[in-house]
Amino acid sequence: MRVIIVGCGRVGSQLANALSAERHDVVVIDRDPLAFGRLSREFGGRMLTGVGFDREILQKADIEGADALAATTDSDNVNIVVAVAAKATFKVPRVVARIYDPQAAEIYRREGIPTVTATLLAANTMKAMIAHPQLGILATFGSGEVELLQVEASKTMAGRTVRDVTLPGESLVGALVRRGQAMIPAADARLEEGDLLHIVVAAAAIPTLEKIFSH
């Protein structure tokens, strides 16, 4: 896969290193040549110095042949300009932008541009750790409306079924890990102490789910 990453800061460099390690064809663009020092010695892609929304720079990165583009600079405005150009002008199949402002991120998501909002993810994760310490938050989706949780079945939960810990329309047990082996559990599967449940749940239903697991 050919990927262009605009911005070689902490996020962009980590993404570039990870994709390069998987043998993807990666091009990193940054206006500061010193930023490329964040790339690992094993990085096997190309580095281009310039502004990420400059048409000439994007063409040097072979954007017409790119499979994906990630805009990861520290500027929301730059990231959106780059993402819109990649999607609308160059028809890049997969485009994602890093956005700091949660309200702006939601607007761009509605326009069809996937965004990652570290501010929102951090706030939601901290909120969950403070308000619901029993439930381990693995991921947050959208603007925090849905969470992926990991919950360990206690001794008091042993013998109960997956159906007993499911809230119809509000939560779903997607996987159960028992003694290191993962499975997709049936509704009538009985829990054992130490089982790890991976649950997708509406954020508004988390307090109800927490009560179920605390009994």
Describe the protein in words:
This protein has 215 residues and is an alpha/beta fold. It folds into two domains: 2-116, Rossmann fold; 121-214, Regulator of K+ conductance, C-terminal domain (Alpha-Beta Plaits, 2-Layer Sandwich). It is built from six helices and eleven strands. It has a six-stranded parallel beta sheet with strand order 3-2-1-4-5-6, with helices on both faces. Strands 7-8-11-9-10 form a five-stranded antiparallel beta sheet. Strand 7 and strand 8 (146-152) form a beta hairpin. The chain is elongated. The relative contact order is 0.10.
Average pLDDT number: 88
Looking at the overall shape, the CATH architecture of the largest domain is 3-Layer(aba) Sandwich
CATH superfamily of the largest domain, by name, is: NAD(P)-binding Rossmann-like Domain
The biggest sheet, with number of strands, parallel, antiparallel or mixed sense and barrel status, is: 6 strands, parallel
Question: Radius of gyration from the CA trace?
Answer: 21 Å
CATH domain topology of the largest domain: Rossmann fold
Can you summarize this structure?
With 215 residues, the chain is an alpha/beta fold. It is built from six helices and eleven strands. The radius of gyration is 21 Å and the shape is elongated.
